[in-house]
Design goal:
single chain, alpha/beta, 8-stranded parallel β-barrel, two-stranded antiparallel ribbon, 36% helix
């Protein structure tokens, strides 16, 4: 999930976008936990699927790449939702009455009668939450059921920085032997400890000002002691190995051994929003060690260590590992929005974007940022790649950028990219060109390496804006975010000048609600004719022949106006419901009961 999407999510599990169980930070709504771990048949052990092998999964994905069909997936599809028994309910209530009660359905099934074929889950939620939340067994059962019904499972890990402290609790989840040392694994309550700017609270003029959380990758790659948090004194590599070993142990305990889960650790590294992101790889400068492993080699060392540790663990030989970047924009390639479009954005997302831009800028001025030579060489923008020849140049410029931090064909089994459409404006032909070119980079690189490939995250943020407008009525002004949301965003910024800039972005002189006028509303709010599922996602997935697409998850706290909530699949009665039904009915999109790919494999394009 990209920076804006994660920033917009309430405080919760790392990357989940769902509020944590009681005790979570930030005042977000709590997600009620359950104590029952039994399946619907009353058995304590739950479903035990007959799992395909790793080879069978890769072959299935490869057949999909050769076909014109793709699997449709959603993060936490059968774990989080918002539509139940004819009404919208909070995600916590939905969990209580469905997955938490042993009933694994989805908002997709409520609308089209079928669950997504790919279930995305969080390793953080499965293995690193406090055990008292009692969600581990439910997540494990959802995974087993997905495989038992012929589906696939992907697993991301929004790892907290190894130097993070605020969200790490004193409870001991386990003690793990790693590199000859006993490491006590501590649970994470949630929050934003994976964000690069999480502990950025003052300007950076020198190495002494850099938050310790941003040194984690370098401390792992160079096996030096951690400098903050509960693991202080342990080497970064030992921290990583211990967490990988603990994750494997949880998979074994929850009867997930041998399942061909597609794990996707340390993704979207081409962005600046995670502590493992590209700007934070200048280890020679950040550690003050001129001979340190640095740049892309540092990222590769960290990923290789995690993957090799997981694969060496008993019962983990069937895991697959996916490599996925965010969009591959050139250093000067970006997008400007109108004043009305700016007002449609989510305040916390904008505040975090401002913080990241400042953080990276200050690191650069201080000589502490990693600069990507491959990104600087990507000079042709998609807007000018309008001919066949220019499209070839565009793709040729970005393929080195895509693989700049690729740890090797022996490490990764699946290649991917994450592409989201912005909330501020309608998706259009320019998006089809840009995203089509980005997917062409992915496809050509994957084919050259004989690897299956997928659109590992996708989505539009505009579903919630469309629903807000529908509920407000067809005319007049539209409240898109209330004063509370603006106040929370302002609280993220430590500099008064940055706070003033945030208010200007939303057309405000002081904190208050963000309202689109009638004229602004007409130019910003989505219409049903925009039809992102069929006019964007379906077209892109078919043309690129991706094996699967995964949209992000649902979060809804029960309040439908005054602030954003997050979901990426419509529900019965939503303005996009008919469009999603058409998307489901298209022979190219495959849901759980479709058993795709159907028929003989097509000739490779």
């Amino acid at each position: 999930m990209t920076a804006a999407a994660r920033s917009a999510a309430p405080v919760g599990d790392a990357g989940s976008g769902v509020a944590t169980a009681p005790g979570g930070a930030g005042g977000a709504a709590s997600l009620t936990t359950v104590s029952s771990t039994a399946g619907r048949d009353g058995s304590a052990g739950g479903t035990v699927p007959v799992a395909p092998t790793k080879t069978e999964v890769t072959e299935r994905l490869a057949r999909l790449n050769r076909s014109e069909q793709f699997l449709f997936g959603q993060e936490n599809s059968t774990l989080w939702g918002m539509y139940s028994q004819g009404a919208l309910v909070s995600t916590s209530k939905w969990f209580e009455t469905t997955a938490g009660a042993g009933r694994f359905t989805s908002d997709s099934e409520a609308l089209v009668g079928d669950n997504p074929a790919v279930l995305g889950v969080s390793l953080g939620m499965l293995a690193f939450e406090p055990t008292g939340w009692n969600r581990r067994a439910v997540i494990a059962e959802a995974i087993r059921r997905q495989f038992a019904q012929g589906g696939l499972v992907t697993m991301d890990w929004h790892a907290p920085s190894c130097n993070a402290g605020a969200s790490v609790q004193s409870e001991a989840l386990a003690t793990v032997k790693a590199n000859g040392r006993d490491v006590v694994i501590r649970p994470i309550l949630g929050g934003s400890s994976f964000y690069a700017e999480d502990e950025y609270h003052r300007p950076i003029a020198s190495r002494a000002d850099v938050p310790e959380t941003l040194k984690c990758l370098c401390q792992i790659a160079n096996e030096v002691p951690l400098t903050a948090g509960p693991y202080q004194g342990t080497t970064g590599m030992t921290w990583l190995v211990a967490h990988a070993k603990h994750a494997a142990q949880v998979l074994r305990e929850e009867k997930l051994s041998g399942l061909p889960i597609i794990m996707r650790p340390f993704h979207e590294h081409t962005g600046s929003w995670f502590w493992w992101g590209q700007p934070y790889w200048n280890c020679a400068a950040l550690l003050g060690k001129p001979d340190a492993v640095s740049g892309p080699d540092a990222y590769k060392a960290m990923v290789r260590a995690f993957v090799s540790t997981m694969r060496a663990e008993p019962g983990m030989n069937n895991l697959l590992f996916a490599y996925s970047t965010d969009r591959l924009l050139g250093a000067e390639e970006g997008e400007r929005f109108t004043a009305a479009q700016n007002k449609a954005m989510e305040p916390a997302a904008q505040a975090r974007d401002q913080l990241r831009e400042r953080l990276v800028r200050e690191l650069g001025v201080a000589g502490l940022a990693n600069l990507s030579s491959a990104q600087r060489a990507a000079t042709l923008p998609a807007s000018r790649a309008t001919s066949a020849r220019r499209a070839e140049i565009y793709v040729a410029q970005r393929r080195p950028y895509y693989v700049e931090a690729y740890a090797g064909d022996d490490v990764f089994d699946v290649l991917g990219i994450d592409l989201y459409h912005p909330i501020a404006r309608a998706s259009n032909r320019a998006d089809l060109r840009l995203f089509g070119l980005q997917l062409r980079v992915l496809a050509e690189e994957a084919r050259s390496r004989a690897k299956p490939y997928a659109l590992t995250e996708a989505g539009t943020y505009r579903l919630q804006l469309e629903e807000l407008a529908r509920k407000a009525g067809p005319r007049g002004s539209l409240l898109v975010n209330d004063k509370k949301s603006v106040d929370a965003a302002l609280a993220l910024l430590f500099d008064p000048l940055d706070r003033a800039a945030l208010l200007r972005h939303f057309g405000l002189s002081a904190s208050g609600p963000i309202v689109l006028s009638a004229a602004e509303r007409a130019s910003v709010v989505p219409s049903v004719a925009e039809d992102w599922f069929n006019r964007q996602l379906l077209v892109l997935a078919k043309e690129a022949r991706v094996a699967y697409v995964l949209v992000w998850q649902t979060y809804f706290d029960g309040i439908a106006t005054g602030h954003y909530f997050n979901y990426y699949v419509p529900y019965p009665g939503h303005p996009e419901a008919r469009n999603f039904e058409r998307f489901y009915a298209d022979p190219a999109s495959c849901f759980l009961r479709d058993a795709c790919p159907r028929g003989p494999s097509a000739t490779p394009p």
